[in-house]
Amino acid sequence: MSSTDTAASPIVEAGDAARQFARRWWVLATIGLAQTMVALDGTVMNIALPSAQAELGFDDGSRPWIITAYSLAFASLLLLSGRLADRFGRKNIFIIGLAGFAVASAVGGAAVNFEMLVTARAVQGAFAALLAPAALALLTTTFTNGRERARAFGVFGAIGVGGLTIGLVLGGALTEYLSWRSTMYINLLFAIPAIIGAIILLGHAVRSTDRAPIDIPGTLTVSAGLFSLVYGFSRVESDGWDAPITIAFLAAGVVLLAVFFVLQARLARPLLPLRVILDRERGGGLLGMLLSTAGMLGMVFLLAYYVQGILGYSAVQTGIAFLPMPIALATSAIIIAPRLSRILGPKITVPLGFLIGATAMLLLTRITTEDAYVAHILPSLILLGLGLGLAIPTSTSIATMGLRREDTGVGSSLVSTVQQVGGALGVAILSSVAATAAVDYVAEHTATATLPLEAAVNADTIAFFVSAGLFVLGALVTATLLRPGRVTDESDEPAGIMAA
């Protein structure tokens, strides 16, 4: 039976499941390559932007669109992409996402003007939206037993968060020693082996037997709603919360998403069945993802500006300065979190991770205008990595656990959607808090040569207090919603493994 068949026979499906289970760690490596590529592209272009601007000659007003085009396409198409993965096969959508992302990256690397580059970035985001839910769905259906699932999600979570930081290092190094174009071309080194691995390792692409048409009204409202919400958050830093454009897009996003959920409750075949989000355990995992991503990305955004703008670090030095965080996160996610979850259960493990993250943020409020990286920044980065390593992979695992077969893709896309919205929300909140605090500080103090630096540091410390508050809120929410005890079994059998 070919991969284009509507549904595989039980014998073929069982055989695919057994083979995929036997090769599960190679499957994880393939998924990891794809996840690394998507995570890197969240930050790798940030540092390359000035060089791209100088070569292609676009103005400062156009520069943010190189980043925004990617994130808007990514966020707004995620739920549709998840349903497409359920409908047409996760393996098929995974490979299409990889191939499209690679082609868009090559076009972006060869860009001769702003229009070509920004279009390539938008297309990258669209194919990333195809790729991310399919990758997570494949991980969910490949690792179903408790012990290995926890470890696999630890690896996946560490790659996702660590890739954002490593992207800063890689972006700075590639731009400094090669060219900004190499930050686009490098995606081919991840995409090509991942495509080969997916073709060889993954089983037949089993499509859903449900041939009901895609929910077009739901697709349009949720895509437009997510676009408006993320774009509205992106305007906060430059225009403020009270700017008409910010208010208009945020209001439109809220209204459109409200309409979407009303439609989902009334339709017989909705894009996002409400059963996916109304489960208490899954809701706790999704809110954990939202708040952890908001606190983390908001902090990274401000701290990167601090070490470069106040302490004078180069782009490469900035990336290297952040490296302890992904190292600590990987250690926590792969080694510590699975053991704690088995012993204490997620109800304790996830809130504990949030509280460690809150402690890291409070320690970070000690920064000054002087360079005291080892005393003030390094301990916070290590603690934050340890805390996020407990919270993020465990929350991701909970958010994707117990999904019906036909909901695996859309359920996985919901995790990615929450992360995108959480990141945009965190950056919007912390950057606006910092901007307001800086203005207030300058107004309240006598002008001196060092006042701008002092105002910036004071603003960052206040924002870090707010970030600590987001982590505390995450601890309270997850402690309330998650149930006591383990939510996974420790069987090592491939029972319940589904073909791709």
SSE blueprint and pairings:
Layout: H1 10-22, H2 24-40, H3 44-56, H4 64-76, H5 78-88, H6 90-109, H7 114-142, H8 146-177, H9 182-185, H10 187-201, H11 216-239, H12 244-266, H13 275-278, H14 280-310, H15 315-322, H16 324-344, H17 346-364, H18 373-400, H19 408-444, H20 451-481
Helix pairs in contact: 2-7, 2-8, 2-10, 3-8, 4-7, 4-11, 4-19, 5-6, 5-7, 5-19, 6-7, 6-10, 7-19, 8-15, 8-16, 8-18, 11-12, 11-19, 14-18, 14-19, 14-20, 16-17, 16-18, 17-18, 17-20, 19-20
Provide structural commentary.
- The chain is built from 20 helices and no strands.
- The protein is mainly α.
- It folds into two domains: 10-214 and 271-481, MFS general substrate transporter like domains (Growth Hormone, Chain: A); 215-270.
- α6 (90-109) runs antiparallel to α7, α14 (280-310) crosses α19 and α16 (324-344) runs antiparallel to α17 (346-364).
- The longest helix is centred in the last third of the chain and has 37 residues, at 408-444.
- It is globular.
- The relative contact order is 0.15.
- Mean pLDDT is 79; it is low at 1-14 and 487-499.
Structural features:
Growth Hormone, Chain: A; 0% strand; mainly alpha; 500 residues; 2 domains; 79% helix; disordered C terminus; disordered N terminus; 20 helices
Brief rundown of the structure:
The protein has 20 helices and no strands. The chain has 500 residues and is an all-alpha fold.
Query: What is the number of independent domains?
Result: 2
First and last CA, distance: 14 Å
Number of strands: 0
Please tell me what the overall shape is: globular
Note the main sheet.
Answer: none
Mean pLDDT: 79
Number of helices: 20
